[in-house]
Specification:
- This protein is globular.
- Helices cover 23% and strands 24% of the residues.
- The longest helix has 15 residues.
- It is built from eleven helices and 22 strands.
- Strand 1 and strand 2 form a beta hairpin.
Length: 461
């Protein structure tokens, strides 16, 4: 029975039809496996293609004392993976004409002080408002961990802040306080608790029947995962269910099975992810001076609707992680491949990001490439498929490309690609992505994908 619970391949949930491709589940399990037969917490992994489930599997235990395994129906505290759902709620209000992204938040939250510059709804979403972090404020006020406090306590702390971290709109600072305010805006406009609004407008329409947002002490939760940290003596694990019991910055209790339904709505269903909502969710934001609002340490990823968006080692990704004292998660999509991957863990001693990208490689092969230095870009590259060479010359943000046809025929006018904020180079609908220390690049257009070129020299012959 135990092996049945721990290894499962789902081919056709209610939200989708049979898996389109075979996935080596044992390879996925190897990425998240601990010492064989160890009684330890672990991770659950989901792989989704075009809204359909390709694989769901899990290793480890939701409850060590009861030896209850993790599975697709295990409830995880989702932590900051919740943020995209908070913005989805905002986006539905915008779509309905009940809220504007550039509205001054004091229109809805008059208790907030009048700062140096008005704080807008969009700034809260992008973490550019300068609102101080609510969880940090609770700790600094000596009020203990988040599970010991309620929403009103955290909200009043944010309302009492007489200053912002910086002039709103000018910098980036990740803020759980800003997302607490977003949830409160939803609550006041919607006229019901945020958890109820999210259930009615988001979770139920997408068929996410077991997932829910916290609104005070949690109800009895069958099959919920405890969060675990290593014991101080290094032997075994200790429970740490110290996450907040209110929503906005976190608060979502999520199953992998329900996440499959979420992926289906993004790709196929569009009951919540309508075109108007998609634009809000997937548009990276800017600072007030027009520069991209990039999270420090993100590798250049922009920030959109509770999601990090941009190029990661040669692949376009949309992702967001989540972490509490004893949970670590990452949910990512590769839109160009219509691939979604999730790794949800009830332990913190594993690097979840590296595990997720190992899962992607187990499914897609070696598709990630190391970032390239400017000095390594210039040179001659060749495509076996085109039987043509491209001479690249980079100066400032302009990449000049001279196409040398087969047989060395006379080349046409050079092409001028411009560097994008995500590090790629673009000309009309063509996107050129250099990788692996300049050893090659991919060329994509609206109708041609992933033409590969390898570097063959430092310049024209």
């Amino acid at each position: 029975m135990k092996s049945k619970l721990l290894v499962f391949l789902v081919a056709g949930l209610a939200c989708g039809s049979a898996a389109a491709a075979k996935v080596d589940v044992e390879r996925l399990r190897a990425v998240i496996s601990d010492t064989p037969d160890a009684v330890a917490p672990g991770c659950a992994v989901g792989v989704f293609r075009a809204g359909k489930v390709e694989a769901l599997t899990a290793v480890g235990y939701a409850d060590l004392e009861e030896k209850r395994p993790l599975d697709a129906d295990t409830l995880f505290y989702a932590a900051s993976v919740s943020k995209q759902f908070t913005v989805l709620a905002i986006a539905k209000l915008v779509e309905a004409g009940r809220l504007g992204l550039d509205d001054d938040v004091r229109r809805y939250l008059p208790e907030l002080p009048q700062y140096e510059r008005p704080v807008t709804v969009r700034m809260l979403i992008l973490h550019t408002a300068g609102i101080r972090d609510s969880l940090g404020l609770l700790q600094m006020a000596g009020l203990g961990t988040a599970d010991k406090n309620d929403k009103d306590t955290a909200l009043q702390l944010v309302f009492r802040q007489k200053q912002t971290n910086f002039t709103p709109g000018t910098e980036y600072s990740y803020s759980n306080g800003g997302y607490l305010l977003l949830a409160e805006i939803v609550e006041r406009i919607g006229g019901v608790p945020f958890a109820d609004f999210a259930k009615r407008e988001l979770l139920d329409p997408m068929g996410m029947k077991r997932s829910f947002f916290l609104n005070g002490p949690p109800p009895a939760m069958r099959n919920a995962a405890h969060g675990y940290v290593k014991a101080k003596d290094g032997e075994g694990y200790e429970i740490r269910d110290t996450y907040p019991r209110f929503s906005g910055s976190g608060g979502l209790m999520l199953t992998l099975d329900d996440l499959a339904r979420y992926e289906y709505d993004i790709e196929v269903g569009h009951k919540v992810w309508t075109p108007a909502v998609r634009r809000i969710m997937l548009t990276p934001g800017d600072f007030s001076n027009g520069e991209p609002a990039v999270r420090p340490g993100s590798g250049g990823l922009g920030y959109g609707g509770g999601l990090q968006i941009g190029w990661h080692q040669g692949q376009y990704v949309v992702q967001h992680g989540g972490g509490a004292e004893a949970f670590r998660h990452l949910v990512a999509r590769l839109p160009e491949r219509r691939l979604g991957v999730a790794v949800l863990c009830n332990r913190t001693d594993w690097p979840v990001e590296s595990k997720l990208y190992r899962v992607v490689e187990a499914v897609e092969g070696d598709i990630f490439h190391a970032p390239v230095e400017d000095a390594q870009v210039s040179g001659r590259y060749h495509s076996d498929e085109l039987q043509a060479s491209y001479d690249l010359s980079l100066k400032d943000d302009t990449l000049t490309v001279r196409v040398v046809p087969r047989g060395g025929a006379e080349a046409g006018e050079p092409l001028q690609f411009k560097r994008e904020r995500n590090g790629t180079f673009k000309l009309r609908d063509m996107v050129l992505t250099v990788y692996e220390q300049g050893t090659g690049f991919n060329l994509d257009s609206s109708r041609i994908s992933r033409l590969q070129f390898r570097k063959v020299g430092d310049g024209a012959d």
